[in-house]
Amino acid sequence: MPVAIMPGTFDPPTRGHLNLIARAANCFDSLVVAVGENIKKTPWFPVERRVELLQASIALDLPELTDRIEVAAYRGLVVNFAATRGATVIVKGVRDGLDLAAEQIQATHNRELGGLETLLLLAEPRWQHVSSSAVKELVTWEVDPLPYVPAPVAAALAHRTS
């Protein structure tokens, strides 16, 4: 099976992200979770810390999949990074129609620029309302994020605000 890449900012990683990572990892022999920068966003955690948080969360919550999942930081265009890993498929999660519209445009660019196909996974209903932005808002208002983020992420968020 082809190698797949799942790019995102993951700032912070959520339980919805982990659900999508697990589902994608079960579809491919190898999944690269690519943690990147988004010039439109101001991150709470540096890229290296987000990589660490994802690795710790995957090890804790998805131990049976750790041998098939690589978490790596990247900079620049995802098509260029995908080429360095031999990936031929991009996997993205979609929560709603707004996500779908944005991902459709990105999928077209990635096919034109790098010949990559995009597989869109629909978010499970229990995670459709969870986003990194929503988690940040909850943390700002001192609401416990643990229902929405893996334990290592909750600890990092608590340390960030203390």
Give keywords.
162 residues, alpha/beta, 5-stranded parallel β-sheet, 6 helices, Cyt_trans-like, nucleotidyltransferase, magnesium, EC 2.7.7.3, Rossmann-like_a/b/a_fold
Rg over alpha carbons: 15 Å
Helix and strand pattern: EHEHEHEHEHH
Please tally the helical runs, counting DSSP H or I stretches of 4 or more residues. 6
Strand tally is 5
Reconstruct the topology from this structure:
Blueprint: E1 3-8, H1 15-25, E2 30-35, H2 47-61, E3 69-73, H3 78-85, E4 87-94, H4 97-114, E5 117-122, H5 132-140, H6 151-161
Parallel strand pairs: 1-2, 1-4, 2-3, 4-5
Helix pairs in contact: 2-6
Report a brief summary of the structure.
With 162 residues, this protein is of the alpha/beta class. Helix content is 44%, strand content 19%. It has 6 helices and 5 strands; from the N terminus they run E-H-E-H-E-H-E-H-E-H-H.
Description:
With 162 residues, the chain is an alpha/beta fold. The protein is 44% helix and 19% strand. It is built from six helices and five strands; from the N terminus they run βαβαβαβαβαα. It has helices spanning 15-25, 47-61, 78-85, 97-114, 132-140, 151-161, and strands spanning 3-8, 30-35, 69-73, 87-94, 117-122. A five-stranded parallel beta sheet has the order 3-2-1-4-5, with helices on both faces. It is globular, with a radius of gyration of 15 Å. The mean pLDDT is 95. Homohexamer. One of its GO terms (molecular function) is pantetheine-phosphate adenylyltransferase activity. Its cofactor is Mg(2+). It is an enzyme of class 2 (transferase).
